[in-house]
Amino acid sequence: MSFLTLTLSLIFVLIPIVLSKTLKLGLEKDTIIATIRSIIQLLAVGYLLTFVFDSDNFFYLVCMIILMIGAATQNARKKGAAIQGITWKLIVTFIFVEGLTQGILLGLQITPPAAQYIIPISGMLIGNSMVLSILFLNRFTSEVETRQEETELILSLGGTPKQAIHMPLIHSIKASLIPTIESQKTIGLVQLPGMMSGQIIAGADPAQAVQFQLLILFLLLTTAAVTSIMLGLLSYPTLFNKQMQMLKIRE
Amino acid sequence: MTSSDPVAIKFKNVNYSDGKLPILKNINGFFPKAKITTIVGPSGAGKTTLFRLCNGLISPSSGETIVNERDINYYEPTQLRRTFGLALQRATMLRGNVFKNLSMPRILQDKRLHKNEAKELLNDVGLDPNILERNVKDLSGGQRQKVSIARTLVNKPNILLLDEITSSLDQVSQLDIETLIKQLNEKYKVTIIWITHNLQQARSVGDYTWVMMDGQLVESGEISLLHHPQHAKVKRFIKGEVE
Question: Per the database record, which ranges form the ABC transporter domain (chain B) (predicted)?
């Protein structure tokens, strides 16, 4: 694709701006900001990836992953601001998810140990893990607030914090996993996944593209389950103190 | 109430603040063992907060709470809470049937409640044992409250904390619960501490009483205190001049 054709694709940005203006939705400014940010970010990443792939240096590869984890943490922590130490909990979760999945992929030689594979797959995994974290934290804080009476009832009956928080935790984990599981049920029927579409457009063999996409889908299932459960197990103890008293959730 | 009476819970200079807002101010007093003490006072007097202190759901900002002659911090939190039964105005239920709710205190200790025990508990609180499998959503307000009381009895508590348990019930259910609580007190010698906004109820069920206002224990003593209070503020409250 040439820069001229890319410029022409800006028509697809103009359409929502015109619609927003006509219907007075007030989304013009956000649309323009989002477009400019995506252009700058993706161009920067494109040049950065070229540099990392050309240099073939392990250090740069690690730096890229750290950058992804940092950005994902920064984005997700806002939703969990009510939970003490959420930044570290997110970082530990993302590192664990990345280590586990890449460990399996590379350890079993499912993918080659090359930056071209590690970086894009890490991006998809960490990105998915970030979305899952946001979904989980959003639901968990609201479950904790709405079920406070029930939680304190279990504490009053002599239950431990783990027993008292069991139901809000389970509901939040399930709720955050549902979108991943549901979207996998209709994949290929309703939408063609982005990575697979990209490969096909770039001229790859569709059968090969499907194989890679399946690999990613399976990885995303693990990522989703591990992220929600790990974040839940790391988060709930901070809602209680040593006397097994429920602490007020921070505003 | 004399200092020689056996004491279930004693407070020494207890203060509690929520952030900078003082809720309980210098509480000094006690609840006698195996008796019914009613706590009365206007809304916002700190009565419910006092209950949460008793079973360790919160800790005082300063002062000491003595439970069964030992400092509250001596007890492991789960053990402490199993010596108390707490029933609330809304009779909070766990989703599911009556048996699930009655079983919960045992499940929390990795033990089982047998159906016969559950039926006996329902019988103790004057409910038909056949409602065991009924969903709690299908119970009346009075039935829910009785199930809530039965659930507190599973752990065989020494002390029952009752927070406005009859305030949303009709007259018949109210009298029913009053009789039940008196029977439990007589049968099991359980210490009952009962928050109520109903002065008539406080007089009829209580052996002793506490009058709390604005976070303070203003007056406490034999139940006759509610007929002949000494403190001017309490006199105004009893006349209905303080909401």
Answer: 9-239
B59 touches A: beta carbon within 8 Å: yes
Name every residue whose Cβ is closer than 8 Å to that of residue B156 and which is 6 or more positions away in sequence.
Answer: B188
| Boundaries of every domain in chain A | 1-55, 57-239
- Class of residue A187 by CB neighbours under 10 A (exposed 0-12, middle 13-18, buried 19+): middle
Q: Which of B59, B88, B94 lies at the smallest CB-CB distance from A245?
A: B59
Chain A residues within 8 A of B92 when measuring between CB atoms: 149-150, 153
Of B90, B92, B109, nearest to A158 by CB-CB distance is B109
Q: Is B79 on the interface with A (CB under 8 A)?
A: yes
CATH number assigned to the domain covering B1-38+57-74+202-243: 3.40.50.300
Q: Which residue has the tokens 């979305």?
A: A131
Q: Give B15's strand partners.
A: B62
Judged by CB atoms closer than 8 Å, whether chains meet at A245 and B56 is answered as: yes
> What's the CATH number for B76-159+168-191?
3.40.50.300
Tens digit of each residue's pLDDT (9 = 90 or more) over A218-234 = 888 999 999 999 999 99
Nearest Cα to Cα of residue A27 among A35, A17, A15, A41: A17
- Cα distances from B178 to residues A87, B84, B126, in angstroms, run 52, 19, 12
- Percent of chain B at pLDDT exceeding 90: 73
Residue A116 in tokens:
């071209």
What are the structural domain ranges in chain B? 1-38+57-74+202-243, 76-159+168-191
In angstroms, rounded to a whole number, what is the distance separating the alpha carbons of residues B83 and B175? 26
Segment B88-138, tens digit of pLDDT: 888 888 889 999 999 999 999 999 999 999 999 999 888 999 999 999 999
A152 vs B contacts (CB less than 8 Å): 57
Residue A155: helix, strand or coil by DSSP?
helix
Any chain A CB within 8 A of the CB of B155?
A: yes
Q: Read out DSSP for B186-197?
A: HHH--EEEEE-S
